[in-house]
């Protein structure tokens, strides 16, 4: 289980990660990762499981599965980063292996995109970075 100290709890952190972080969408989940190199702290992870996923029992089950999966992968995250995992409605019927594969794929993309030397610059009005 993901330790309590690594869970994102403040709305401002969720908003910051979703608005400014990099996004990777998969069939069962959408992940947002905001790398904050200037902050030397443990990475934080938050979860969004909306009513469209299912009733309260289903949502809590999906949230528990996602927390368990992220706990095994939190060491991969850069220090100070914020990770938000949003469950899509398909996550309710997805198996453990499907959720794990989607999470691994999304994290691989986000961590690759944010590695030193990659793009990530600010877009200009001409579409160039």
UniProtKB/TrEMBL annotation:
The protein's UniProt keywords, in alphabetical order, are: Endonuclease, Hydrolase, Nuclease, RNA-binding, tRNA processing
SUPFAM superfamilies, per the entry? Ribosomal protein S5 domain 2-like
Which stretches does the entry tag as region Disordered? 110-129
Q: Which family does it belong to?
A: Belongs to the RnpA family.
The yes or no answer to whether the keyword Ribosomal protein is present is: no
Classification via PROSITE patterns: RIBONUCLEASE_P
Instruction: List the catalytic activities from the record.
Output: Endonucleolytic cleavage of RNA, removing 5'-extranucleotides from tRNA precursor
GO MF terms held by the record:
ribonuclease P activity
Q: Which Pfam families does the protein's record reference?
A: Ribonuclease_P (PF00825)
Query: What does the protein in this record do?
Result: RNaseP catalyzes the removal of the 5'-leader sequence from pre-tRNA to produce the mature 5'-terminus. It can also cleave other RNA substrates such as 4.5S RNA. The protein component plays an auxiliary but essential role in vivo by binding to the 5'-leader sequence and broadening the substrate specificity of the ribozyme.
Q: How does it assemble?
A: Consists of a catalytic RNA component (M1 or rnpB) and a protein subunit.
Annotated signal sequence is none
Protein name (Swiss-Prot/TrEMBL): Ribonuclease P protein component
Q: Which domain of life is it from?
A: Bacteria
EC numbers: 3.1.26.5
């Amino acid at each position: 289980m993901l330790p309590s100290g690594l869970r994102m709890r403040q709305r401002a952190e969720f908003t910051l990660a979703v608005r400014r972080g990099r996004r990777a969408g998969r069939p069962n989940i959408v992940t947002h990762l905001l790398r904050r190199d200037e902050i030397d702290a443990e990475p934080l992870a938050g979860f969004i499981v909306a009513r469209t996923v299912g009733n309260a029992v289903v949502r809590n089950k999906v949230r528990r599965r996602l927390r368990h999966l992220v706990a095994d992968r939190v060491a991969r995250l850069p220090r100070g980063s914020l990770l938000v995992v949003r469950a899509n409605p398909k996550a309710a019927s997805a198996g453990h292996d499907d959720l794990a594969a989607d999470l691994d794929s999304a994290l691989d993309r986000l961590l690759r995109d944010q590695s030193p030397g990659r793009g990530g610059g600010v877009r200009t009005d001409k579409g160039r970075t």
